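Section 5.1 Outputs to date
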Amino acid sequence: MVGFLFLNLKGNGSVLQSFYNPNSGLVAETIREDVNRHPSEHIYYLGKQIIKKTTYIENQEEFKSYFSKERWYASHDKYEEITVLVDRKNSKTITRRYINGVLKQEQEKIQPVPNHIIETIILVGIIFLIIVIIIAFLTFILASFITIIKWFVENHAIAIYL
């Protein structure tokens, strides 16, 4: 059975949830949520030692988003990804990998910032075109069906009795 403890931090609206093992009394897992109730930090413990930590922060002054994943097993392995706005149209994502505090890999990638207004206009246009094509197809089928019925009636292939 896992225990649960719920704490409010610093009065700023962020929340810390701690899950613990009632047999040992030790914390097994903590989750910190920001003011909007989005997880910003998730830590797993083995005994009194941290074995895994995930951090996610969005929309700060110095960066758009920050993500890191750390593991402590035989070594300390850390992966982090930082996204910063270069200008209004582009963002830069920097990924780094550390082993025991030593930088082993670093990569930078610049990509355009998605424009949600243009994406929405394109999506609405595509949906409109699909609806127009479906209506045109149904109109063609109905006109063909009426033409066939009319041909059968004119050639007395079908007798209509009232």
